[in-house]
Amino acid sequence: MIAGNDTRPEQPDLLRAAFTAISKDIDAAFDTLLSVPDDPRHRLYEAMRHATIGGGKRMRPLLVKAAGKLFSLDNAQLLRVGLAVECIHVYSLVHDDLPAMDDDDMRRGKPTVHRAFDEATAILAGDSLHDLAFEILTIEDTHADPFVRCNLVRALARASGTNGMAGGQMMDMAAESMTFDLHSITRLQQLKTGALIGFCVEAAAIMAHLPPEARTGLHGYARDIGLAFQIADDLLDIEGDAAVTGKAVGKDAQAGKQTFASLLGAERAREQARILVAQAKAHLHDYDERADLLRAIADYVIERDR
């Protein structure tokens, strides 16, 4: 938690209500999409349900919805895009937890998929969630315009591939045996964490047919909260409580990874996160109260305890 000794009020009612609503909607959608068949695939579906239903912050789908509010976009369509993002996010967690990567036993307060099932099933569950994300985006219910759907697919593929999340994960693994400076860590986290957060905001701009030159503020907002989010994660790995975070803490230090917190020190990292959040909110100056939820999410990024 970044707030430290700062006695901030609790999350505003707006944000609490928004998280409650999006969590309920995402869980209900996964429950429908991942109905367990009465055939040999049932174990795969059960693993996917274990990974997706219950727990998790659902911040990325909420970002999609919050950005969509700027342009009065259809809530059902925004939910479908948010569901696709969550599929990608959860698939990455399932694979990240595997013994070949971070070898974690707990995720979202319950056993990781490979612990609850087995490694082969976990790999297939992650693969299937990855595929489901793009299937969701290609369906007409997501958007009537096929060019918009194509652009959403392209943007999500870019955010999750070698120039996004997967590339960042490769750099993260390299950080265990290489010395990374602050510039390299920033680049790593812009790919591993920031790219998918950037897509959440970019998706709304795509759906609203916003021209590229009008997206500068949204890009700046997403970039800054992405870095602030990662700094908060680094600090939670040092100072967090596993019973609250729902996953092991102290893993980065054990692996010898350089992070924002290890390079800057906890207090400087905390201050940098606050600066980034202030910058993120400043990028929204062209928007009125329609951006209030985005502003609340920016504050939440550094005030959360999990």
Q: Please, could you describe this protein's structure?
A:
The protein has 306 residues and is mainly alpha-helical. It has a single domain (13-303), classed as Farnesyl Diphosphate Synthase (Orthogonal Bundle). Helix content is 68%, strand content 1%. The protein contains 15 helices and two strands. The protein has a two-stranded antiparallel sheet. The termini are close together.
CATH superfamily: Farnesyl Diphosphate Synthase
Shape: globular
How many DSSP helices?
15
> What is the fold-level CATH name, i.e. the topology?
Farnesyl Diphosphate Synthase
Instruction: Classify the beta-strand content into a percent band.
Output: under 5%
Strand order of the largest sheet: 1-2
CATH class: Mainly Alpha
Structural domains: how many: 1
Radius of gyration: 19 Å
How many beta-strand elements? 2
| Sheet having the most strands | 2 strands, antiparallel
What are the low-pLDDT stretches, counting only 5+ consecutive residues below 50? Answer: 3-10
Kindly state the mean pLDDT as a whole number?
93
Helical content stands at: 55-70%
N-end to C-end Cα span: 8 Å
